[in-house]
Amino acid sequence: MHDSTAVEVNQLTKQFKGATAVHPLNFEVHAHEIFGFLGPNGAGKTTTMRMLAGLLEPSSGDGYIHGKSIKNHPLEAKQQLAYLPDKPDIYPKLTGWEFLQFIASVFKLDKNIWIEHAKRLLHRFDLTESAGRLMETYSHGMKQKIALTGALIHQPSVIFLDEPTVGLDPKSSRDLRAILRETAADGTAVFFSTHMLDVADQLCDRVGIIHRGRLLQTGTPEALKQEHASHAGGSLEDVFLRMTEQHETEGPEGEVP
Ligand SMILES: Nc1ncnc2c1ncn2[C@@H]1O[C@H](COP(=O)(O)OP(=O)(O)OP(=O)(O)O)[C@@H](O)[C@H]1O
Predict the structure, then answer these.
(1) In a 10 Å sphere around its CB, with 0-12 CB exposed, 13-18 middle and 19+ buried, how is residue 74 labelled?
(2) What integer pLDDT is reported at residue 1 of this predicted model?
(3) Helix orientation angle between 170-185 and 140-153, rounded to the nearest 10 degrees
(4) Which range of residues forms the domain containing residue 66?
(5) ipTM value
(6) Ligand 1 centre and the CA of 21: distance in Å?
(7) If exposure means fewest CB atoms within 10 Å of the residue's CB, which of 52, 93, 173, 188 is most exposed?
(8) Domain ABC transporter: where (predicted)?
């Protein structure tokens, strides 16, 4: 028996002006699980996550957040999730702390709980001293970290993160990975996309490899490595390259004019 299903993806598709960016997708992510969405540029990772976060309307199919349809019950679905885009939009004229206060008021958080939680996260991310500064003065990595802090203080049951480690220095990246581990241990389903296969290998309970909008395979990093051991080398990167290159030779989706 596995943990409860946090995200269910059912025949989810997306077309942009007749071109299919995401072909019918089906998979699940469970509570307590870190799921890595791996794929080359343009594979459909962001499009899929934006649909599941309720930010982009699917062309067909549906996604469920703890059983709530993103199409039919978008408010209930969104209340349970957080989405961290690759370039988070933050408010330049707010300080980091004002931003967190704003999130706390939107989600009506109990100040006896969120303030302590926020302070702990700020400390973990070395943001305590800069929390009083306007966010327009923050570096890219600091913006990523304050946006993640904002996402975590309302304790979502599902968190989607688009390329969360890009732009982080090694310490921040390590802290982020530790925090994602703890977040999953507390019961949250963590769903993130990455190109960084070593990060995925270390961190993910399961990965899904997506290429040209099709999910090629899902499984634990260990199982994928074992399954492909006779063809690929020993790393997840070898498996990823082999799978996406193999699919590449099956021909392009459209003709180059
Ligand atoms: N608004 C849009 N209009 C038209 N095509 C789009 C739009 N958004 C995405 N696409 C196309 O959909 C496909 C998937 O894009 P997506 O951004 O989901 O890929 P990705 O896997 O997140 O890539 P990357 O790793 O480069 O961020 C690409 O071919 C992209 O050009």
Answers:
(1) middle
(2) 39
(3) 10
(4) 5-80+156-248
(5) 0.97
(6) 7
(7) 93
(8) 7-237
Residue 120 covered by a domain: no
Q: Which of 55, 20, 22, 27 is nearest to 162 (CA)?
A: 55
Please state the atom number of ligand 1 nearest to the C-alpha of residue 14.
12
Which residue CA neighbors atom 17 of ligand 1 most closely? 46
* Ranges assigned E (strand) in the chain: 5-16, 19-30, 34-38, 60-65, 68-69, 81-84, 158-162, 189-194, 206-211, 214-219
What phi, psi does 73 have (nearest 5°)?
-135, 60
Residues 169-195 pLDDT 10s? 888 888 889 989 999 999 999 999 988
Centroid of ligand 1 to alpha carbon of 245 (angstroms): 19
Total domain count, the chain: 1
Which pLDDT score, from 0 to 100, does residue 249 have? 62
- Between the CA of 41 and the centroid of ligand 1 the distance, in Å, is 8
Ligand 1 close to Cβ of residue 43 (< 6 A): yes
Task: Write phi, then psi, for 108 (nearest 5 degrees).
Answer: 50, 50
Domain CATH number, residue 44: 3.40.50.300
Distance 46 CA to ligand 1 centre (A): 7
Q: Look-up: residue for tokens 């090694």? A: 170
| Kind and range of the H or E run holding 105 | helix 96-106
166 CA distance to ligand 1 centroid (A)?
18
pLDDT tens for each residue of 218-247 = 999 998 888 877 765 678 888 888 888 876
Say if 122 falls within a structural domain: no
Which amino acid residue places its CA nearest to atom 4 of ligand 1?
16
Residue 99 lies in a domain: no
